[in-house]
Each structure stands twice: as C-alpha cells, then as structure tokens.
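User: Hey, quick favor. My workstation is busy. Could you predict this chain's structure for me?
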Amino acid sequence: MSALKLKKGLSKHSAYDLKDPHAQAEERHTLSVLVANEAGVLARVIGLFSGRGYNIESLTVAETDHEGHLSRITIVTTGTPEVIEQIKAQLGRIVPVYEVHDLTVEGMAVERELALFKVAGTGNNRIEALRLAEIFRANVVDSTLESFVFEITGTPQKVDAFAELMRPLGLNEMARTGVAALSRGAE
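Assistant: No problem, here it is.
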C-alpha cells in the first residue's frame, strides 16, 4: 500500500489502530468506602488497585467517626462498567470494609476539592491573577511582592479551569487534596 493511501486514511488495517471495536468506553466513578480506622486498611485498599492494575485518579481518607473508629476513603477511578463492578465487589470483600457506595450511579452527589496555587508575577500578570481569583472565588492566603498563594474550593473541573488560566500568569506550584464526596439527600 502506498504512503499516499496511508496518509489519506484509506487503509482499513493500521498498526496504529489496534483498539478493540467492541470494547466498552471507560467511565469515571467516585467510590465512597467506609472502613475501620485501623493500621493497614489503606494499604490493603491501595494494594487491591495496584495488584490488579486499576488506576486511582484521586484518593482522600480521613476519620469520620472518632468514637466508632470509622474512616471514609473516597476514591475516584476509571474503568469499564465491568471493571468498576469488579472493584466494588473486591473492596466489599476486604475485612475492615463496612460499606462501598458508587456515588456516580447511586444518584446525585456533591464533590469538592481544595487546592493551593502559588502564582508568581508582577505588573499586569499580578493584577490579572487577582481579577481571575475574584471571579473564581479563590482566597489569597499568602502574599509577597513577587507572588500569591490562592486557595480554591470547588469541583475538580473548576480547579482544573483555574489552573489553566493561572499557567500563563506565572503558576509555579499547585497542591490538591483530591476529591471529597457525599451523596445528596437525607440518606
């Protein structure tokens, strides 16, 4: 086959297109896992993901019930529907796991993330960074003559959008907490 035919995309078989046409698309899911607050639980959960080659996009964990010794692990991951079901089933089999909820399929959920951005700049870039921070409702938590540290809370998409706008204005560093999420409603 000539290079011209390949260039025009007339080839039906290409080594660069080895994707399975019947494969399901990957989906992003937020899982909320209630676990016993004891040593080694987080390592077991992470081991489940790494041992099977599953990716974790975001991971947060904190104690939520001091008296009951419970912690909530919020995991954002991607996979086909079958992979997500496998992850949930395998998480449920870990002994100190009490509940596994897929907030993506169980209904409406609230997702938030906290991020800190260090933006260095002078002159118009400094003024523009302050103007954008006001639009995004970001707080200035540190200021010097050469830089600002902004604190922003919102959806991961809002944090991403703020980062993209700050890059050309002198974004030096960023720290993100990862997603914290809860289902909406009384239950």
